[in-house]
Amino acid sequence: RYQSLAYNRVLEIHKQHLSPMATAYFQKPLLLHQGHMEWLYDSEGNRYLDFFSGIVTVSVGHCHPKVNAVAQKQLGRLWHTSTLFFHPPMHEYAEKLSALLPEPLKVIFLTNSGSEANDLAMLMARAHSNNLDIISFRGAYHGCSPYTLGLTNVGTFKMELPGGLGCQSTMCPDVFRGPWGGSHCRDSPVQTIRKCSCAPDCCQAKDKYIEQFEDTLNTSVAKSLAGFFAEPIQGVNGVVQYPKGFLKEAFKLVRERGGVCIADEVQTGFGRLGSHFWGFQTHDVLPDIVTMAKGMGNGFPMAAVVTTPEIAKSLAKRLLHFNTFGGNPMACAIGSAVLEVIKEENLQENSQEVGTYMLLKFAKLRDEFEIVGDVRGKGLMIGMEMVQDKVSRKPLPREELNQIHEDCKRLGLLVGRGGIFSQTFRIAPPMCITKPEVDFAVEVFRSALIQHMERRAK
Ligand code: PMP
């Protein structure tokens, strides 16, 4: 009784005092009470397997004991200094993080959110290149600060107001939903069901999308460019992957025009993709700037921009950069513990092994159900795109998607949604997930899909 009263009170307060845009996923919003590793518990004591990690953020597990112990120790020692004073947790963290990045990406700017990191990366690109224009993909999400909204190309985040000066979008090389693509284009153990017309060892899709990229460079931006932002795999757009080799060629074209290349690793970094620690490494490219957040603090607010000494110098010449909370002792101690846990518990390897196992299992669902159009991703960043049928690839109507989503929750599984029609289920559990839990999740989906097909048949 107490719990249900508290629940109603929460809904009332939410309605009266919180942003009307902070909407809940489910018909009956989930009121969370506690988390442990890959499990979440609501206020009524129901248990859920967390397969979305609070939007791809919990990397090593909710309330991980080692991270909690480090946080508690730091809590009793020192919370805050501002960047005016030095404190060892920041320097320890800087040393650990920089060791994970290749030369010459060795200078770290600590911030508090991904949007803030991308704002700063935009400033850096412009300060370094002395140019204005920046390009990003359609479907990209790089933040929702006024500056980064120019880079974010998801319709629901656009406003009828001037903004995004100097930002241009370019076609997203999406091999499933875009005009070109096919059966061996992307870097994933599972390929699209679209048959590629070219021979197995070549890929026309990449060349066609590169032509489009060049077209943007020739028509929509100034001759000299400030930069190009790309997520190694698009998150918010529904785990969208590009053809193999695309980013490498795109980086070359951007650099020929004086621009710098920025990898937004906010979702893809810290071992989530399994085969590599950073998403850009899966494309065999070396960016000039890397931005990161989310999994970096396992849910604690912290983010960073990492760049080369040369680019850092270009910014320092033009601006005094200051951040009250960026690099605070709590965040840095937690960030260090997260890096240690990823290593000690072999979580990158676990992402690779359990992620690949899961991807292949979800691919079976795609073969079983006409409404599962595509299964894709790498490591523990997986997308399952829902369609009306495999030939038209039209997105499944939203009400039907919502029902499947509700059914998964009812059966004890939390997953995310993505894509401009919200048509893709996004699966990104904490990296400590196990194979039996994956089996459970796949069976929950199978059961939700069977129920859906039965409803459709009526
Ligand atoms: N970049 C990417 C790829 C993201 O997914 C997000 C958040 N969804 C951001 C940037 C912005 O991060 P934040 O919400 O911490 O500002």
Structural commentary:
The longest helix is centred in the last third of the chain and has 23 residues, at 435-457. Helix 7 links the parallel strand 7 and strand 8 (260-264). The model has no long low-confidence stretch (mean pLDDT 94). This protein folds into two domains: 2-51 and 346-457, Aspartate Aminotransferase, domain 1 (Alpha-Beta Complex); 68-344, Type I PLP-dependent aspartate aminotransferase-like (Major domain) (Aspartate Aminotransferase, domain 2, 3-Layer(aba) Sandwich). Helix 12 (398-410) crosses helix 13. The strands form three sheets. It has a seven-stranded mixed beta sheet, with helices on both faces. By secondary structure, it is of the alpha/beta class. Helices cover 38% and strands 14% of the residues. 4'-deoxy-4'-aminopyridoxal-5'-phosphate (PMP) binds next to helix 5. The site of 4'-deoxy-4'-aminopyridoxal-5'-phosphate has 15 residues, from helix 5.
